[in-house]
Amino acid sequence: MSEEKGGESKNIEVFVRIRPTNEKGTPFVSTDPDEIPHQKLAFRIPKDLSRDVINNSKEEYDFRFNRVFEQPTTQEEVFDAVAKNVVLRGIEGYNGTIFAYGQTGSGKTFTITGGAERYVDRGIIPRALSLMYSEFQRRSDYQFSAHISYLEIYNEHGYDLLDPNHETKKLEDLPKVSMMQDADGNMHLRNLSAHLANNEEEALNLLFLGDTNRMICETPMNPNSSRSHCIFTVFVEARKTGSDSVRRSKIHLVDLAGSERVGKTNASGQLLREAQAINVSLHYLEQVIKALQARSKGQQTFIPYRNSILTAVLRDSLGGNSATTLVATIAPERAHTSESISTCRFAQRCSEVQNVVELNEEVDPKLVIRRLKGEIKELKEEIAVLKGGEVDDGDLTAEEMRRIEEMVDQYVHDPAPDASFAPGNMARIRYSYIIFKKYTKGKAIDDGKNGLRAREELDTSLKEAEDAVQKLKLELQRRDNEITILVNMLKKKGEDAPNSIGKSTGNGPPVNLSSSQEMSRTVPARAHDTPSSKKKELDQAEQKPNPPVQGNWADGDGQEGVDAPLVAKSLAPGAEKLLSEPEKLMDRDQAFNAFRKSYRKNEAIEENKSVLKAKCDEAKFVAQVCLPSLHMFAYINFCPCSK
């Protein structure tokens, strides 16, 4: 590797991939992956085998390449070794080319494009697109754009695979892609479209569209044989934020049609004509490689690029400004040994070709002009403001306000960190501050009716939620007050009567029952009762002296306690069983439920509730009947047209 002409001189990297086969053993092919720096691929041909195999006096053929991929090699391993570095350098501004060469059916299309059955079988092109767009998102200091073209070379004629008329017209009716050369010697393709791909999904859609339009056919050697050369090109443009320079690079991903021997395939008719065109173009490609090999040794200077459209398109990739990588695919079967050796010879010639890789960076005059115009405009406005040449002569017109709003909106949504904003005189600057203030508060410039309606709905929802929370709080407080009154009364009576229920039973703390008068004051509070009224009621109950006690109804020992007749009178039948378990009465909810069930007037309360509910339903019905009349009355009295 050396430096020439301000660029990096680098030989074409060559990799060989052996196609997986069902044939047991490959006696003619052997590899030595441990050799450094280049791996060895050898063919051993016994002399006694003369049928279908090259058998000259030479029995051994040894080749050395950058790496030899064995049959179990995965697509990911191939991509990491062959294409990853080329794609990353292409993003940085260096041209790159990857092309697959080999006989038909040896796995070129599978390596470049991939298989359609499993996701892990993705080829170099889909993986390169995924890596490229992930790098675009990671490198936030650059603004990237990618344009994609897909060229097909069929029978020595170029066609655009992304042409929208490709599916509706015959191939012969489509405009042919032609080569044109400018005064600087650069080649340009006419009638070849380049489509902008903003993300990975759009790029993959373009790839699938081109593969659908590609010419394939079934041959004796391959059921899905590619009958044309295809060149998938990605044009990358990178602009660094705040810089006037731009980097433009192109990455060629080439799937060559496979060479085939007509004597083996017995092709005829259209297949024969296609095979002849493929072999002729590959022959011209080999001539270019041989000429470049001779030039690297100082023997030849003329390179026949113009003999074929394929070599003309790949002019930069072969001996020019590009980092080029070749993937040679071979079939290990005995019947294909001669074609495999021929492929390895071609690949070894390519490894001697040198390219000079240069960074494609230039100053974009459009960016310079745009930047200078912006600076001139800003300076003029600053001078005008400082000199007072442009005074504030009143309010802004509606057109000026609309224009400033558009400028502010464009400035806010501009992703570039160095975006400029120059409204003009002081009146415009003040109005710009007002708009920025609205943006800061989260308001739009023009809310409109939809925005106001949404705001009203939001306020209404919040108010309803607050009302619901307040009702729940009041209900919770009411229940807490009821339970507190009951528990306090039970505890007070328990302290006054030493022989309580708890003591007699021995199953918990002492809990006494009050008289019927005390029990009647513990009726559950209504919805309109307030905490102050409950507290007052509790204080009155505590200040009132307890009546004399005849005896304890629970144990009948005649000691001071709860008056059994009064308790029995105020409690409902079966309440003694509920109140004989003091451990349950210590819980607020259980104590309140026990009290509510034991109260004799509970049935009357439920009956009153039913009557009140019926009255409420009747009132609602009357309101529904009278409501239309009220509306009509209000309309007649308050409508302006009736006055």
Shape: elongated
Strand content: 15-25%
Which structural class fits the helix and strand makeup?
Answer: alpha+beta
Unreliable segments of 5+ consecutive residues = 1-5, 444-449, 499-538, 541-570
Terminal residue distance? 100 Å
Over all CA atoms, what is the radius of gyration?
47 Å
Oligomer: single chain
Find the count of extended strands (DSSP E, 2+ residues).
20
Helix content: 40-55%
Mean pLDDT: 75
Largest sheet: 10 strands, mixed
Tally of alpha and pi helices: 21
Describe, in plain words, how this protein is organized in 3D.
With 643 residues, the protein is of the alpha+beta class. The protein is built from 21 helices and 20 strands. The strands form five sheets. Strands 3, 7, 8, 9, 10, 13, 16, 17, 18 and 20 form a ten-stranded mixed β-sheet that branches. The protein has a three-stranded antiparallel β-sheet with strand order 1-2-19. A three-stranded antiparallel β-sheet has the order 4-5-6, with helices on one face. The longest helix is centred in the last third of the chain and has 49 residues, at 448-496. The protein starts with a strand and ends in a 5-residue tail after the last helix.
